[in-house]
Design a protein that fits this description.
single chain; mainly alpha; 0% strand
Length: 585
Amino acid sequence: MAAAPPVAASPRGPVAPPAGRRAHARARVSRTGASGGGGFLAKAAAVTAGLTAAGAVLGLLRDQIMAGYFGAGAGTDAFLVAWTVPEFASTLLIEDAMALILVPAFSRALARRSAGLSDDPVRALVRGTLPRIVLALGVAAVVLIVAAPLLVAALAPGLPDPALAVDCTRLTGTCVLSFALVGYCSAALRAHGRFLPPAAIYVAYNVGIIGTVLVLRGPWGVRSAAAGVAVGGVLMVLVQAPALLRELRTPQRQMPAAPAAGGGSGEGRILVLGLIAPVVAFSLCRQSQTLIERFLAAPLPSGAISHLNYAQKVAQMPMILSLMLCTVSFPVVARALAAGDPEAARRRVERDLLLAAVVVLVGSSTVIAAAPRIVELLFERGEFTGADTSATAAVMRVYALGLLGQTMVGALVRCYFSAARPLWYPAAAMAAGLATTAAAGVPGAHHWGAVGIAAANALGITLTAVLLLRGAHRQAVPIHVGRLGEGLLRLATASAWATGAGWLCQLAIGSAVLAVAVAGLVVVGVFLLFIACAAKAPEIPPLPRSAFRRTSHARRHRAAPSAAEAAPVEAAPVGGDVPLDHGRR
């Protein structure tokens, strides 16, 4: 590494270099992480992937424990109606809305901090937003707990045991406040370039649920799982809070006050309804698919909601892993856009979309090819019978048809919310998909039960993905829609061939473990062979090279800061993306 240039005098006065090993480490992180350096992005992706996999494994273990202890009957259906609350809150407060709103807000505050303001903009942002969020979501949690009977009646009319569902809903309702704190901490830490604590939240969450079920299942029954949701939410906060407090306590470099356009009062605009409404509307519409499923499945025979839940949890694992790279690279895309380099952002997004498609298609092909054996291996024990295995596997195969659409929606929406002001188009596209799910779900549930509901879900989310892809070329990240669509179509064709081969190869194998392993290996082999031999196969960069590759903005920044980066940063509207802090962390 070349020697650092000497520190030159600046109009703001000399800045003392950070002292100590910890300060040196923070400075090194700011030089690599803030610029989207290859090593930083690769490490962040590796950490996120490892902890995501650990959380997914614990989630499967949680579902196995619940299937073994409680089966797929009326009691489990009652709990899963209450489970709608943490599912909804997780999407709105952790995964989508909170992150899409707060990551840009903290990025702006970090950029203004490096501009040399006397009052730390990051701490000002926390003071201006965190108390309001806690108050608003605390009141919402209390209202939800009090109104639990009305909520259960609205979500699942005709449920066999509504009283049990009400008890569970009151326990899970506490997660509205805890998940809000989790989402706030996650967004702040990711903006600071800290990925380890946010990646560990679902490990803590599932540990809390599993431990509570093991301890309280005797006296409380299925209510122990609902209590585990409350315990898990607290553990998620505790995993992140120390890291965020350390970031907020980090002494700011003392500089003379410098004027900054917009002032600090702009940070409070994060709660302005007109700015966050498009993001919230999209997240609400996306998660409302689960509400429609539970509503349509409630009148069906006991166990239908449970079959939908178990099938969805397993089928969505490839999607969760595929979106991991998009989550890590979102700040990198934001910095490239803020630096005026949409071409670098486009290349990054297109690579991420193709890589995510490869992961999710290989996973969905394996799920479709060996669904009964997967369910048998994971759940068929205790109260979970062979009939439950057959019903869950049928639903899981249909769910898997919509996984590519689910992944594309999760990845493409980041392009839309990278604009200077959040756009309404994603919410409109998601609403169209939701209407399609509801319209197709009514006759589907009537004629085919839970399988018809899963088919309606796949149809609706695929329509949303097509609409988002069609409109992506006009957004802040100008994706080449035709070329990307052709690549996705060829990958889907490879997936279809791989699915057939995997299904045929596992038919004659008796052991469930061996059958799943053979199906997975055959799917991967046929998929890669088809891509290698097909004419005009999409160009998919290897994951290591994609992870380590820096954007042109990053390479320029490491050589020398641009004039735009050296100048004071104006306060941007919420939803705009600005460079992360290039100074001390």
